[in-house]
Amino acid sequence: MSFKNLKTAINNNDMDIYYSVDGGKTIDFKDTDSGSGNFVIPFSSSDAKKHTIEVQVVDSNYVSPDGTKDVVSSNTLTYTVNVEDLSLIASASNNNPIDKLNDTTVALPNITVKHNDGSNIESGNLKVNYSITNPNSNDGKAVVGIETPMILGGDGTADGSETFSLNVTKDMGLRVGQNTVDVTVTDPGGHTSNKLTFVINVEDKNPVLTYGDKNNGKMTVVAADDSITFPLNIAYEDNIRFKPSDLKFTAKVDGEKTITLPKLTSSSLHDSLYFEETIDRAKLGLDANKNVKTHTVTFQATDPYGRVSKELTFNLDMVYSSANLTYKDSYSFGSLNQSPESRLVKRTSDWDIGVNTVDSQYKLTASAGPLTAGGPTDSHTLAGGLIYVDPNTGNSQSMTDPVTLSENNSDTTYQYHISNKWAKNQGILLQVNSNASAGSYSGKINWNLTDSI
């Protein structure tokens, strides 16, 4: 306060301050504690509303410049004071939508709470009241609950605020689709904050299982094998990146027996993943019953939100008895000079001829055509040809007609190493007649394996 057009100092001791609140009784007081010309109106109220305070100052000891004493009054000032209840204010570090695929625990942005007057929040449990609404779940009705993310000590930060984080989980009500999460906070003093709203989008995309090879699920399985390996690819619709370790896999045998398979270990993000699922034959329940010629094994993937892939079925053709031949693509004999004498030419290496049987008999025969050299216009045939020397009898036979190399007349499961039993002068050899023409000759051996005798 100051005197108009005068530089006279204000003596607070001479000033009577009159004020009234909301048109009530006028109160007269002096403020001798404040500096010259400054006054503080003592006002407090527990009545939360807008209050009107009218103030006027009267100087009853005013002395004019000519020495005359007088009483002067100031203009009247009107103040409006808005008294509010103590309340809790909540704010979030951001309100951007959160997109997730398989996370069953989602951290909301940090939440900060403080009293509207800056006072410290009371000591005790901070309660978070939440509701989760998803139009695809619970008939669109909200799922509600209370969390207690932290215990306060009543000291807070410089402005009395407290900051905490809150995890929203599938157990709390997160479902596939758009989840609207409304949050209010109640402090230990019972003050409940304004509402904060967050959106968590759990993407509505399903896992996709496909065959890992080009056989479209058709497999030939030897019934005696201890295990069966299935080639698979796993991905998500629209090639959304995912963690394979989030998924569970099951296999159903012949539409009945369901097997839970081990989880994949990769926790890195993938667009798609090829993997092989090897399952013990005993676990599948394929007990080598010869009356069942085919089986089906159907796979399905399930993610943490219960989204499932379409079923993927492998069709197994069971082989309960078989005989298979193993051999090399080419063989060779040693070199020799032209001679007036006939000779036998030995093999240059082990030929690795074998038969693998599964509960089967077998008979292996072979025949050979002539050996020729030269090109289309100057070809000539070797004088001689392939013969077979029986390791047991020593007898030799021309291979112009089929000769028996090995046989077994009982049903066995075994690997027969046939050529390993041949000495250097036994088995298939090359017979070269006298004065055979020099050259590099080649020919063809015809193998014939039957699984019965």
- Name the helicity range: under 10%
Structural class: mainly beta
* Relative strand content: over 45%
* Biggest β-sheet description: 5 strands, antiparallel
List how many beta strands DSSP finds: 33
Mean pLDDT: 89
Quaternary state reads single chain
Q: For the CA atoms, what is the radius of gyration?
A: 49 Å
Rounded to the nearest angstrom, the distance between the terminal CA atoms is 128 Å
Q: How many domains make up the 3D coordinates? A: 4
- The total of helices stands at 1
Topology, element by element:
Elements: E1 15-21, E2 27-29, E3 50-63, E4 69-73, E5 77-82, E6 88-92, E7 98-100, E8 105-107, E9 111-115, E10 124-133, E11 143-152, E12 162-164, E13 167-169, E14 177-186, E15 196-202, E16 207-211, E17 218-222, E18 227-236, E19 248-253, E20 257-260, E21 272-280, H1 281-284, E22 294-302, E23 312-319, E24 322-326, E25 343-345, E26 354-368, E27 372-373, E28 380-381, E29 384-389, E30 396-398, E31 403-417, E32 427-432, E33 445-450
Parallel strand pairs: 7-15, 17-23
Antiparallel strand pairs: 1-2, 1-3, 3-4, 3-5, 6-9, 8-13, 9-12, 10-11, 10-14, 14-15, 16-18, 18-21, 19-20, 19-22, 22-23, 24-26, 25-32, 26-31, 26-33, 27-28, 29-30, 29-32
Model description:
It is a single chain. With 453 residues, the chain is mainly beta. It has one helix at 281-284, and strands at 15-21, 27-29, 50-63, 69-73, 77-82, 88-92, 98-100, 105-107, 111-115, 124-133, 143-152, 162-164, 167-169, 177-186, 196-202, 207-211, 218-222, 227-236, 248-253, 257-260, 272-280, 294-302, 312-319, 322-326, 343-345, 354-368, 372-373, 380-381, 384-389, 396-398, 403-417, 427-432, 445-450. Strands 1, 2, 3, 4 and 5 form a five-stranded antiparallel beta sheet that branches. The chain has a five-stranded mixed beta sheet with strand order 7-15-14-10-11, with no helix packed on it. A five-stranded mixed beta sheet has the order 17-23-22-19-20, with no helix packed on it. The relative contact order is 0.09. The model has no long low-confidence stretch (mean pLDDT 89).
